[in-house]
Amino acid sequence: MTATSASHPKTPVKLTQSPTWQALKNERTAWKKLHLRDLFARDKKRSARYSLELDDPDETFLLDYSKNLIRPQTLKLLVKLAKEAKVEALRNAMFSGEKINLTENRAVLHTALRGEAPVKVDGHDVIPEVRAVLEQIRVFADRVRPGKWKGSSGQPITDGVNIGLGGAVLGPAMACIALKPYGGNIRVHFVSNVDPSQLVDTLEDLDPATTLFIVASKTFTTQETLLNAQAARTWLLEAAKDEKQIAKHFVAVSTNSEAVNALGIDTDNMFVFWDCVCGRYSLWSAIGLPIALYIGMDAFEELLAGGRDMDTHFKDAPLDQNMPVLMALIGLWYTNFWDAQAYAVLPYEQRLARFPAYLQQLDMESSGKSVTRDGRTVSCATGPVLFGEPGTNGQHAFYQLIHQGTSLIPCDFIAGRESHNDLIGQHGSQHAVLLSNFLAQTEALMRGKILAEAQAELAAEGKTTAQIKALAPHKVFPGNRPTNSILYRKLTPRTLGRLIALYEHKVFVQGALWNVNSYDQWGVELGKQLAKVILPELQGGKPGAHDSSTLGLIRRIRD
Ligand code: F6P
After folding, report:
1. 279 touches ligand 1 (CB under 6 Å)
2. Catalytic-residue membership of 10
3. Judging by DSSP bridges, how do beta strands 250-254 and 270-272 pair with one another?
4. What span, in angstroms and rounded, lies between the C-alpha atoms of 215 and 445?
5. What torsion, rounded to 10 degrees, do the Cα atoms 535, 536, 537, 540 define?
6. Burial 417-437 (b: 16+ CB within 10 A, else e)
7. Known catalytic residue at 396
8. Residue pLDDT, tens place only, 397-448
9. Are 322 and 314 in contact (CB under 8 A)?
10. Exactly one of 365, 389, 504, 537 is catalytic; which is it?
């Protein structure tokens, strides 16, 4: 799959100069007098009006965006903005294999990885190649999982260790944790950090005779991944003693067969993916090998089908009924008109614990840009800081700031109607307790608590007038704090696929609106370059020209 021609729909010169942008500023001013509590009181159908559901009776997948700071005119203007930014044209260009990644002159093909219809890049349909790699993964997983693939001593594989960084680990690790109920007999581990402690701690309990390493790197030049792979190789050879055994214990996922070969991994054991698949969008490709190894290929295909469900919705639904489009527009509304600089993703699903970390790369590496696609300085703020933790844990840590702090932090709350593991305790279903918290938080953030309510509560507790006066201001919640609620039936592979693709497309739409290239990441290069300069200096070389802070720290480390 190669890419050589470049075409992309033209975007408007500056969205911020459009009358729609100005009208949104006025709309923001109007919002100074509005409160969601009143809007809900006035409009009993607000939730129905501002909810969307995928058309699938068996698998709930619902977005309720009614607890956002929006009203009909707000949405009308935002959707108009999407039209002016030519979001639909860019979306169609992406799905049809056009080279929308301009700085790298590449198509953007993660949707083709889960697609079925032909996608032509330079006149060549890429889908057969995608299917061929998926088939290779199936054959491999079907050998390793039932123990037909034997290690150096003839024993079956029990543990897979994925060595990779960024997109080569965050997606697969997140998905394997999320899909634990579908996990089989192969345990999977993930090593990414060049801090040797991670590899050492991981290998501590593993047996080289039954361990399979998956070295995953798009470029196969990432220093951390190569160092960890070499260390893993040494660990294996200490036990296996024979270089020939490497083939039984190492496979690679990459676009770079020469570098795979140079590391001593047989290219027969290599799973390819393509330059046009960006690392943070790659879990649908061979980068998903650990997922397939863990949950089996049929379940992995279900994950792909979930991504495809969301692709279909994104392609077909009108902009004002389109989940990723609306999430993107509402996110932009807060970033650019409410000065929101952070954004929280809060899964009420412990197994989505790594979902916020996964989304950090997806969103912040895609939208953390200050230059437009055509190389000019952006004229408005772009991507916010994304963070999150599973509820209810986060409630007892950072929610205080979201409820009563001075910043507006829009949140996405995510939950399943059903749990894979309900327990019945003192309060009945433990999952119901989780969900009651999920609902209570979004209601509290929306409603808030006014002074009179705080005073009444204190009076009911028997507090004196002086105590009420002193305490009541602390108990006021401003409310009007926006949230999305995403509700699905149960965390299945298909649901996870839908959820991931929802956020992928949301990020895509925001990139289109801000006119930034969501598919490059030049901002990670400078640190890499400087680390190469500093390494020999730490190892005894003459310190070069650095600032006094860096020089001082180099000396302290060397001492
Ligand atoms: O440095 C950032 C980055 O390029 C990410 O975009 C990518 O996911 C990660 O490094 C790993 O890159 P590779 O897959 O080439 O090892």
Report:
1. yes
2. no
3. parallel
4. 44
5. 130
6. eebeeeeeeeeeeebeebbeb
7. yes
8. 999 999 999 999 999 999 999 999 989 988 899 999 999 999 999 999 999 9
9. yes
10. 365
